[in-house]
Amino acid sequence: MAGILRSIVQRPPHRLQTVTNGVESLICTDWIRHKFTKSRIPDKVFQPSPADHDKYGGDPQHPHKLHVVTRIKSTKRRPYWEKDVIKMLGLEKAHTPQVHKNIPSVNAKLKMVKHLIRIKPLRLPQGLPAEEDMAHTCLKSTGELVVRWRLSPVGQDTIKS
Questions:
Q1: Does pTM surpass 0.70?
Q2: Regarding beta strands 117-121 and 66-71, do their DSSP bridges make them parallel or antiparallel, or are they unpaired?
Q3: How far apart are CA 115 and CA 134, in angstroms?
Q4: Model confidence over 16-53: pLDDT tens digits?
Q5: 152 near 96, Cβ under 8 Å?
Q6: Quick one: three-class SS letters along the chain?
């Protein structure tokens, strides 16, 4: 059998040769075209579209600085490394938003569990709040951080009608 295989391999390349030995049939080619050698995915799939940036609220030249991350799926029956990443990100409780920086180290962790979480950019419609206003902020489900302005009562002597 080794002699048959050696004689088939030593033949000129690019020729299909079949050797029949009893019931066995041996086919030898130097190169077989596989159906997955050429990508069947169109190139337009990999091109960024402006509609994606509008849909996700991002500008590629000026990315947002903070993510609002919410776990939406359970970690049961998931591998231990995904459970560890969820724990590192502080997402043990479902549907509780956490704010994380938009940096490569955090983004790599988010990419590992992207099928379990929802990521939205943190929007600041009223601007960045001051340190004393941080206690009076509210994080909406749309990813907006709204400052609740404290109203102090005005004395009667200052009101003149």
A1: no
A2: antiparallel
A3: 31
A4: 555 555 544 455 544 455 555 555 667 776 676 666 56
A5: no
A6: CHHHHHHHHCCCCCCCEEEEECCEEEEECCCCCCCCCCCCCCHHHHCCCHHHHHHHCCECCECCCEEEEEECCCCCCCCHHHHHHHHHCCCCCCCCCEEEECCHHHHHHHHHCCCCEEEEECECCCCCCCHHHHHHEEECCCCEEEECCCCCCCCHHHCCC
Tokens 């075209």 belong to residue: 33
- Which residue in the block uniquely carries the two structure tokens 């379990």? 116
CA atoms within 13 A on the CB side of 116: 24
Return the amino acid letter for 14.
H
Q: pLDDT tens, 65-101?
A: 888 999 999 999 999 999 999 999 999 999 999 999 9
